Amino acid sequence: MGRSRYLITEPDKPHFMTCTVLEWLPVFTRPETFNIIVDCWRYQQQHAGLKLYGYIILENHLHFIAQAPDLRHCVDSFKSYTARQLIDYLQAQQATRLLDRLRFAKRAHKTDREFQFWEEGVHAEWVFNEAMMREKLDYIHYNPVKRGYVNLPEHWRYSSAGHYAGMAGVLEVAAW
Question: Which residues contact 47 (CB under 8 A, 6 or more apart)?
Answer without folding.
Answer: none
